[in-house]
Amino acid sequence: MLLSTGAIPAQTKAPQDSRPNIIVILVDDMGFSDIGCYGGEIDTPTIDKLASEGLRFTQFYNCGRCCPTRASLLTGLYPHKTGIGFMTAQDFGKPGYRADLNRQCVTIAEALKTSGYSTYMTGKWHVSKDFSEDGPKHNWPLQRGFDKFYGTLLAAGSQWDPITLTEGNSYTKMKPGEFYTEILTNKACEYIQQHDTQKPFFLYLAHTAPHWPLHARQKVIEKYRGRFAAGWDKLRAQRLERLKALGILPKESQLSSRDAKVPAWDSIPHKEWEQSRFEAFAAMVDHIDQSTASLLETLDSKGVRNNTLILFLSDNGGDKQEHMYGEIGNTGKPWAYMRYVPLYTPDGAPVIAGDIPGWKLGPANTYGGYGTKWAHLSNAPFKKFKKDTYEGGISTPMIAYWPKGIKAKNQLRHQPSHVADIMATCLELAQTPYPKSYQGQTLKPLDGKSLLPVFEKDQKNHKSLFWEHHGNRAARVGDWKIVAGYQQAWELYHISKDRTETQNLASQHPEKVKELSGLYDQWAANSDVIPREQLNIPEIPPSDNPLVRSKKEIEAYLKVANEELKKHGFRQLQTEKQ
Questions:
Q1: Is the peptide bond before 342 cis (omega within 30 degrees of 0)?
Q2: Does residue 429 carry a pLDDT above 90?
Q3: What is the total count of domains within the chain?
Q4: What is the pLDDT of residues 240-250, one digit of tens each?
Q5: Does some domain include residue 361?
Q6: Bridge-partner residues for 467, per DSSP?
Q7: CB 67 within 8 A of CB 26
Q8: What would the 3-class secondary structure string for 379-441 be?
Q9: For residue 542, what is the DSSP state?
Q10: Whether the model pTM is above 0.90
Q11: For a tag site, which of 80, 161, 221, 271 has the least CB within 10 Å?
């Protein structure tokens, strides 16, 4: 029916949602002290500015490795409860080790989407065993609550030609010369630019940098030439002193001993090449800082920076993994055995997959890492590495920045906290209760606790925290921590006084070891944790795994790659040991 006046009724504009936007920036394999505001030598002015205008957490913990940390961050649960107590390459048939997010958990994206948030993700997913474009896709990002996704499904990959690059639910490719960290950033900025500001958004930006392969643009690498010439021994000591001066560690903190697998800097050959490895790593971190600057510029252009919470952290400590001359550890297998290693560049040149003294990293025809020696610097002043449950494996820098919501500026928060706390924090910000069920499935109760009270003031959050990965174990209860490597006895540290774990007090306080180990056993029994011996974990995937190349493919590649190395006078790549 026509209105007699001929007028069209005005539409009432919905009021703008005042809840904050939330951005989680997760970086990959970056150590505790790599960025400037945590004592490092790398130029990170944008990240440092977030810290100076926000909060730095001094005792924030991850789960020690990529998949478990991501599962815990996304769900607010300990990783075994999500089905990802180990990695995604193999399903062990045990509830805590299914290599896939289960349906007894809900992701941040799923929870926030039901309360009116738009949900976006760019970057590394790595919480599903299924990565074929043909499916199944039930645990891909769009099926776990994200409105938009651009990124990779697997663990590692070239910055110049990443494997399993996906937009939405379909594989895609980058153009030659494009760089993955930059493309992820551009997509994240595009999502923000296109976002309707009448409602809040959640953005999960999960960089693969600075995980190997150490790829960066040459102009950024050149910026760091010679910066690390002092070597890992002196640089570790200098980082400790800066951390103490910043108040991040107590004044009485001692430097952990040089790892048994790390030689003294003064004793090694190939010093220039060794420096070049960390120069490439530093350039990758620099790229992340540039990415963060672009993100802030986009928030400013939309006028939403003031009411956006940004959390910045790493998934685990620096990685000790070695691939000298292209061998996977000491397995006798060439690195090209794994499909995440590209055999050729987008231009058709062979990729030299391995750490070869003299062969400098960064360009698309390289594929290497920085190894145990430089990982020891990344994790300074702590001991051990990624996969371990000592502080070097599980400690991360964590910055919280929110101009409107965090009144304290340039302050430290010393309360032990955990990646599982991020879900609870997002829920409180979204004024959304954690659901008891989702899509007909009963959910496990949250393990994490909201960080909002800790944003207000430094106060207690967790009474206890626990870890298990690959047989490595730890429990932190108050001022005490027990920790053990696989098949090793418990060690005991007064962690509030000895964060660097230099004084093992197990023999002096056996009653404390008994108390904490009992609590660990209770936690393990309630969290789907089982002894590593019951899993029979292979060092590398078997030949029938879809991640593994055929012998014919590998042999053809090695022939071409070794001809390239021979042409330039380098030692050849590892061929498979019979």
A1: no
A2: yes
A3: 1
A4: 999 999 999 99
A5: yes
A6: 474
A7: no
A8: CCCCCCCCCCCCHHHHEEEEEEECCCCCCCCCEEECCCEECCHHHHHHHHHCCCCCCCEECCE
A9: -
A10: yes
A11: 271
